[in-house]
Specification:
The complex is a heterodimer of chains A (111) and B (115).
Chain A (H helix, E strand, L loop, with lengths): L8 E5 L4 E6 L7 E8 L6 E6 L4 E2 L4 E4 L5 E6 L8 E9 L12 E6 L1
Parallel strand pairs in A: 1-9
Antiparallel strand pairs in A: 2-7, 3-4, 3-8, 5-6, 6-7, 8-9
Chain B lengths: L4 E3 L2 E4 L5 E6 L6 E8 L3 E9 L2 E4 L8 E7 L2 E6 L8 E8 L9 E2 L3 E5 L1
Parallel strand pairs in B: 2-11
Antiparallel strand pairs in B: 1-3, 3-8, 4-5, 4-9, 5-6, 7-8, 9-10, 9-11
The chains are: A mainly beta (111), B mainly beta (115).
């Protein structure tokens, strides 16, 4: 599976949009981008995934660049409860279900 | 739905003792995963099962670790004998493989301390 690169930490003001970047320049055509987050002391939580089209659900939006080498997770109106470590993971569609977690981005939402 | 259930939530034991961690996956899910999280190594997959069969155990650190899934609703991770370096949070996750897509749902974890 392709490797991902994320900034170690980010800050965001409550109520503002949080934009979390992820670089996956070696991604291959059959690899999807997944995002999970881990709130302190809890198990990781699935957020969203996508291949090449932008995706949106009740939690977030995922914007993938046309060349698929990077993506951005957008939390449109961040709240204090969104403070967590966010993981960007690439996984082969139809391949192993294994998820390889990197160090992620620690997002702190400030009041 | 109750979600993934893990027990115990906390375990403190002495070096050399046997430790058994338990997991009940979400009903209807056919894949089960055991992860370990430490400050040094982050979150790493130990083993995963599909339809109760171990598929990938390449992350199991050594022979002291073993995992079983006797049926679709129960799995155990056993450490015998335990060592202080096994201290970590152990997460169980489950998923339902539908075609080529699956989403993993994680339990609350078991915090293990080996003295």
């Amino acid at each position: 599976d392709a490797k991902t690169t994320q900034p170690p930490s980010m800050d965001c003001a409550e109520g503002r949009a949080a934009n979390l970047p992820c670089n996956h320049s070696t991604i291959s055509g059959n690899e999807y981008v997944y995002w999970y987050r881990q709130i302190h002391s809890q198990g990781p939580q699935y957020i969203i995934h996508g291949l090449k089209n932008n995706e949106t659900n009740e939690m977030a939006s995922l914007i993938i660049t046309e060349d698929r080498k990077s993506s951005t997770l957008i939390l449109p109106h961040a709240t204090l409860r969104d403070t967590a470590v966010y993981y960007c993971i690439v996984r082969v569609w139809g391949g192993s279900e294994k998820l390889v977690f990197g160090k992620g981005t620690k997002l702190t939402v400030n009041p | 739905d109750a979600g993934v259930i893990q027990s115990p939530r906390h375990e403190v034991t002495e070096m050399g003792q046997e430790v058994t961690l338990r997991c009940k996956p979400i009903s209807g899910h056919n894949s089960l995963f055991w992860y370990r999280q430490t400050m040094m190594r982050g979150l790493e997959l130990l083993i995963y099962f599909n339809n109760n069969v171990p598929i990938d155990d390449s992350g199991m650190p050594e022979d002291r670790f073993s995992a079983k899934m006797p049926n679709a609703s129960f799995s155990t991770l056993k450490i015998q004998p335990s060592e202080p370096r096994d201290s970590a949070v152990y997460f169980c996750a489950s998923s339902k493989l539908q075609g080529a897509q699956s989403t993993q749902y994680f339990g609350p974890g078991t915090r293990l301390t080996v003295l």
